[in-house]
Structure to design on (245 residues):
């Protein structure tokens, strides 16, 4: 084990932050660390909106189900998948960009996720805490309007960053034997392994320091997949230029 692996293994979502600000040099350092992430075809299809306007923060918090950490975190960044920039580059060089292809959507979305995770690891390496906010997609049109996002750009998630004011337990993950498979997708032994993991997850939820509940992982997944998951996203993405051709 080494320090980097220790930091990765200790990851947890932080929803309560101190009032201590993050220095601009620190913020720029962790965002620059994000730029070092891999980028398919060197697209670099990411734009980050740093939201310091507290009126906008309040509106984004409302979109995200009034999650308090959106308001209380010293920094709130919105990570956007951005094809607008490369499209402009193509046009500037006399080309005719092919727009709306699903592969382009995938590349820009993956770029955004890789970039953000680098930012997270860098932040945690400096003793900061983070919380991803996917709920800004509850109303992506409102989020886009607030941030004045152009066509071919969409908000993927927000990210709260700050000095932790809590120390929650690390959430146990699925057994590695369920995730890591040799050569083929063999799920023949998963049921038994997930049953064992469900007991671990239920114990975690029942004994953690906050928001206790009695629920296994598979029960949580049943609840998640039984309901519609932001059905507005398909039309929003098409309207925003991501046609999925």
């Amino acid at each position: 084990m080494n320090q980097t692996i220790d930091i990765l293994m200790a990851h947890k979502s932080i929803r309560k932050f101190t009032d201590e600000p993050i220095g601009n040099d620190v913020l720029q350092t962790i965002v620059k660390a994000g730029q070092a992430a891999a980028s398919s075809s060197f697209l670099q299809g990411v734009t980050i909106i740093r939201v310091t306007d507290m009126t906008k923060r309040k509106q984004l918090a409302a979109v995200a189900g009034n999650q308090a950490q959106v308001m209380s975190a010293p920094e709130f960044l919105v990570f956007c998948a951005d094809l607008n920039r490369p499209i402009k580059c193509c046009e500037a060089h006399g080309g005719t960009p092919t727009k709306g292809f699903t592969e382009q959507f995938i590349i820009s979305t993956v770029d955004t996720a890789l970039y953000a995770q680098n930012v997270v690891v860098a932040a945690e390496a400096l003793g900061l805490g983070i919380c991803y906010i996917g709920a800004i997609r509850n109303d992506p049109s409102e989020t886009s309007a607030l941030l004045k996002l152009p066509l071919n750009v969409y908000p993927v998630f927000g990210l709260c960053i700050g000095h932790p004011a809590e120390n929650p337990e690390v959430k146990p993950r699925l057994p590695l034997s369920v995730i890591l498979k040799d050569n083929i997708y063999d799920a023949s032994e998963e049921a038994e392994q997930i049953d064992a993991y469900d007991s671990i997850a239920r114990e975690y939820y029942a004994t953690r320091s906050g928001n206790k509940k009695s629920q296994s992982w598979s029960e949580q997944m049943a609840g998640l997949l039984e309901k519609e998951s932001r059905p507005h996203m398909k039309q929003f993405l098409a309207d925003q230029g991501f046609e999925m051709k």
